[in-house]
Specification:
The structure holds 2 protein chains of 2 kinds.
Chain A lengths: L6 E2 L8 E2 L7 H19 L3 E5 L4 H14 L4 E5 L7 H14 L3 E3 L3 H11 L9 H23 L1 E3 L5 H6 L20 H11 L3 H5 L12 H5 L3 H13 L4 H7 L3 H13 L34
Parallel strand pairs in A: 3-4, 3-6, 4-5
Antiparallel strand pairs in A: 1-2
Chain B lengths: L3 E7 L7 H17 L4 E3 L24 H10 L3 E9 L5 E9 L2 E7 L11 H4 L9 E2 L5 E6 L7 H8 L4 E6 L15 H17 L2 E6 L1 E4 L2 E4 L3 E3 L5 E4 L6 E7 L2 H9 L8 H15 L11
Parallel strand pairs in B: 1-2, 2-3, 7-8, 8-9
Antiparallel strand pairs in B: 1-14, 3-4, 4-5, 6-7, 9-12, 10-11, 12-13
Helix pairs in contact in B: 1-2
Classes of the chains: A alpha/beta, B alpha/beta.
């Protein structure tokens, strides 16, 4: 039996593959996510947002949703390129911010990242692996966003999607750090579908997703298969509670399914708060359970 | 009997903010009265918000709490359904829905089925009610009040209808989920509830009034879409999805008589037969799977 066919999202010149089982009601998604963003701000007592705008599709989509939720003037977008980042990324980010009409700032993180490896990294750091460099860039961007959140008086809005969250393609306390995550329950294919519906520029929708750590890098070459394929596998394993065997029977390549399953399994820790060694009567997250913002106690 | 004006309070309660929510209830009671409503229905835990976790005890009220009685006094002249965390004398905490009439509490339903699976964790925080019964009301109609998950168990509408309910009222905090393309309202949850409400209305030849909250608690968004379905299963009124507001519908009690004569499903119910079968089945389900050979 062959794997179910993949249909294009649009009949002419499809911008991406949208597996039919992953297609969402974009109106419903938009309504829920915009309401969610507003509610998070209201609950926290904020009116403004800070967003790291990379020029990629995830942060672009979040920018459109955020601007709809709070109004463009209340959304601060920050571009944080490193010297090896692609200039096109910056151009795309500028296009997005101009289209939305929100304030846009540029913070070049090169001197901060380089300074770390020069000053604190020791001699071995001069040729630090791309993993270390990538992680430091992600964490430097986090640092900038959280610093700007104080001066801008806004919450940091997250841009992670469900696919990268599930396979662990994120930097802990880096790009995964945020006040809330509006699109982290949407697979990359669904991010693309919603982006088209919200009018994210075609160039941003069409270009190959990339961590943009070095020229020519793309997520799909890094991971080894297309987002459409990963999404179809994840959707079955996670949302559909299917077994690996069932996916193989359906026509998926066993090696690929097992690899995706392994990526999810080894990254469970990235999706959870660090465990606390329980010794007391009530422990945060275990048996001390409250909403993230709660009114002060009414009982003495 | 004259037609009745029903007000659906599709609100977004503030989580844990009892005073704010009480104020909103008073405000909407005023608005409903000004619009000549006979019946006003608030959603599940409208006075407290839904995802309370350990706030449950902090917002709990006893049935004789002065704040509830003040609401009841303010409701005078209308029948009003409100929902809150009820603390019993022995300090069990229930998800409760109360019918306020004539300045007092006429009836309390304690949620019987507490979902504790998927995104739900109610059984951790609440005690389950053990009674499903209909109640008379000042409207001249008998009401069957249930809370959210209660309606996901067939026994609830069946017992309420057999107990004489003519209007089934379900108050909900239903989290919207499943936005897969192709569902009529863009939300799987809405489609499921529409199906339940129509099925129950038709099978019990009763009015169904479904009031669901809107707004967001933490990760989950409540979808609203409150509605009234007539005893034939036909839609009487549907409130918009996700919108906060007070919405109105009119029900015609004459429709109950017409439908029940044309479709005497309730007449043909066999509660004594059902009881015998349930007794047999309940015994079998409670048996020891090894010693007794167990149920199949």
């Amino acid at each position: 039996m062959s794997a179910p066919e993949v249909v294009p999202a649009q009949p002419i010149e499809p911008a991406f593959e949208l597996p039919p089982e992953l297609a969402i009601d974009t109106q419903s998604a938009r309504r829920i996510i915009v309401g969610f963003i507003r509610a998070q701000l209201q609950q926290a007592g904020f009116e403004r947002l800070v967003l790291g705008l990379s020029g990629g599709i995830d942060s672009a989509l979040v920018a459109y949703l955020a601007a709809e939720a709070v109004g463009a003037p209340n959304l601060l977008c920050v571009m944080m390129p490193y010297r090896t980042s692609s200039p096109e990324s910056q151009g795309d980010a500028e296009t997005v911010a101009a289209d939305i009409g929100c304030p846009l700032e540029l913070v070049d993180i090169s001197p901060m990242v380089d300074a770390y490896f020069e000053v604190a990294g020791g001699p071995a750091a001069l040729d630090a692996s791309s993993l270390r460099r990538g992680n430091l860039m992600a964490r430097t961007r986090m640092m900038v966003l959280y610093d700007r959140s104080v001066t801008w008086r806004g919450l940091v809005i997250g841009t992670g999607n469900k696919t990268e969250t599930l396979i662990g393609y994120t930097t802990l306390f880096g790009d995964s750090a945020c006040a809330f995550a509006p699109i982290a329950d949407l697979y990359k294919s669904q991010v693309r579908q919603l982006s088209v519906a919200l009018g994210v520029p075609d160039a941003v929708v069409r270009k190959a997703p990339s961590a943009d750590l070095w020229p020519g890098q793309t997520d799909e070459t890094e991971v080894g298969f297309s987002y459409a394929t990963i999404d179809r596998i994840l959707f079955r394993l996670v949302d559909g509670r299917r077994s690996i065997e069932e996916l193989v029977e359906e026509g998926f390549e066993r090696e690929m399914v097992e690899r995706v399953d392994r990526l999810v399994a080894v990254s469970e820790f990235k999706r959870q708060m660090p465990p606390i060694a329980k010794v007391g009567p009530r422990t945060a997250g275990i048996d001390y359970l409250y909403p993230r913002r709660r009114p002060r106690s009414t009982r003495g | 009997m004259a037609s009745l004006r029903v007000a659906l309070a599709q609100i977004a309660p503030r989580l844990g903010a009892l005073d704010d929510n009480l104020a909103r209830h008073h405000e909407l009671m005023g608005a409903a009265r000004a619009a000549s409503a006979d019946l006003l229905v608030f959603p599940e835990l409208g006075l407290t918000g839904y995802l309370l976790q350990d706030l449950n005890a902090e917002v709990a009220m006893r049935a004789d709490d002065p704040r509830l009685l003040e609401l009841a006094r303010a409701a005078a002249g209308m029948s009003v359904v409100v929902s809150f965390v009820e603390e019993s004398d022995d300090h069990r905490l229930f998800i409760a829905a109360a019918l306020l009439e004539a300045g007092g509490i006429r009836h309390i339903h304690r949620k019987v089925f507490l979902p504790t699976y998927g995104l739900f964790d109610e059984r951790r925080f609440f005690a389950a009610g053990s009674v499903i019964r209909a109640t008379d009301s000042a409207l001249g109609l008998r009401l069957g009040i249930s809370v959210c998950e209660d309606a996901w168990h067939l026994a609830t509408p069946q017992l309420l209808a057999l107990d004489g309910a003519q209007v089934l009222i379900n108050v909900s905090s239903s989290p919207g989920r499943d936005i897969a393309a192709g569902s009529p309202e863009g939300l799987g949850t809405a489609t499921s509830w529409r199906t339940l409400n129509r099925t129950y209305a038709q099978l019990t030849t009763s009015y169904v009034i479904f009031v669901n909250r809107v707004g967001v608690d933490e990760s989950i968004s409540f979808w609203g879409g409150s509605e009234v379905v007539g005893p034939s299963g036909a839609t009487v009124y549907q409130a918009p999805l996700h919108e906060d507001g007070l919405f109105f519908a009119t029900i015609d009690p004459g429709e109950l008589r017409r439908e029940r004569i044309a479709n005497p499903l309730l007449r043909d119910e066999r509660p004594e037969m059902v009881l015998r079968q349930l007794d047999r089945i309940a015994r079998a389900r409670a048996s020891d799977p090894v010693e007794d050979g167990g149920p199949s």
